[in-house]
Description:
Layout: H1 5-15, H2 23-26, E1 34-38, E2 41-44, E3 49-52, H3 55-58, H4 67-77, H5 91-103, E4 108-114, H6 117-134, E5 142-146, H7 155-160, H8 164-167, E6 178-180, H9 194-211, E7 216-221, E8 225-226, H10 227-230, E9 232-233, H11 236-249, E10 252-256, H12 270-274, E11 280-283, E12 295-300, H13 301-306, H14 327-342, H15 345-348, H16 350-364, E13 370-376, E14 379-384, H17 400-410, E15 413-414, E16 421-424, H18 432-450
Parallel strand pairs: 3-15, 5-6, 5-7, 7-10, 10-11
Antiparallel strand pairs: 1-2, 2-3, 4-12, 8-9, 11-12, 13-14, 14-16
The chain binds pyridoxal-5'-phosphate (PLP).
Amino acid sequence: MTLDYDKLKQLDHSYLWHPFTQMQDWMGEEPCIISKGEGHFIEDVNGRKYLDGVSSLWCNVHGHRKRAIDDAIRAQLDRISHSTFLGLSHVPGIQLAQKLIEVVPRGLKRVFYSDSGATAVEVAMKMAVQYWQLRGEGRRTLIASLAESYHGDTVGSMSMGYSETFHRYHKSLLFPVLRITPPHVFRYYQGMSEDQALGAAVEEAEAKLTENKNSVAALVMEPLMQGAAGMWAQPAGYLQALSLICRRHGILLVLDEVATGFSRTGKMFACNHAGVTPDILCLAKGITGGYLPLAATITSEEIFAAFLGEYSEFKAFFHGHTYTGNPLGCAAAIANLELFDRENVVENMQPRIAYLQNRLAEEFLPLPHVSDVRQWGFMVGIELVQDKAGRKSYPPQNRIGHKVIVEARKRGVMIRPLGDIIILMPPLSITRGELKLLLDVVSESIQAVTEN
Ligand SMILES: Cc1ncc(COP(=O)(O)O)c(C=O)c1O
């Protein structure tokens, strides 16, 4: 079947409303309409191929049309595509839970499924607040979180991860949160060394959490890398310090590893870099290899046990979604985890992480309009500014980040910026040659836009 681009464009422009997209711009542009994918490339209806430089929004792990995952989904299709998890169970849901518990940090024991990153974190928040009530500490209702963190776009997730740009129209709907400033040198601690910023940020967290120690239910954070803020990196010591403060005050530690999970940072989970086990771990995106919407909120047995009781006590966790634990998603996720083992993914990506790190330091950082490069594993943010010495940003109407991705697209690379921060987050299986192509094109595109 040939796909008529003009017809599809007309239908798209007539009927669709795209997320995080100014539709006025969109409807004045030629949309890129994807029809296929293979390996680390996606292809549009006109037959143009693009290297998938941000893993189809940070979720693809082993490439597109990965045989083992395709086969697992097909095999599951021949059994059943969906059956509820409310009051029933199913085979791939059970098998996946066992596999997840084998890979997450020791101490996490119970898997609660949902279907997106936002729901994984909402579930964690609701569990934490209910947990304290069930434990007889009903005063603990406050959630602490990091400034400019991003946990998704549902009301609870927006409250926890407030972003002025994204969420200001919905401020009236949001609940108050105790905000903690992360050790982000570029934004908050300018002029300090990384160590000084770490010290100052830990001091602030200690003071705020101690002052509110009887009312905080949980600290929710993206460990090591605040992705949607613009890839704000933290040293592993920050997570270690915050984990200790939480333990001291009995505050639950909730880690949102929706973006960092499944080895984006170079270890299976970001918390592995710090040797920290959270009380609750939130996973989504890469859990199915980037194939299907599935999420998991994984807790300790202690949290789970607090919800046990007689039926008539109504202590159960009354939360669920129709597609919670969808069997096709679970089958994809099992195949994803098996591939991590079979293809030795974490170990094999280490030389490519080093290559990425070297090129970023040697070629990108010296560019006259690159003010900062932040990296953990395969998560990269390249910050562009108008004036490097004065750290002066470009006016937003210049849309520098957008212009860079348009240049990259012309050269066959698909990336998506966050404002003027160029994000790179390739699939973990990207080859060395493809990684070189990604970096060559992004470097050329940055220079084409900023040096003319
Ligand atoms: C750290 C983090 N948490 C939560 C989310 C929300 O995930 P979803 O878009 O699947 O709701 C994202 C999405 O980018 C994320 O990066």
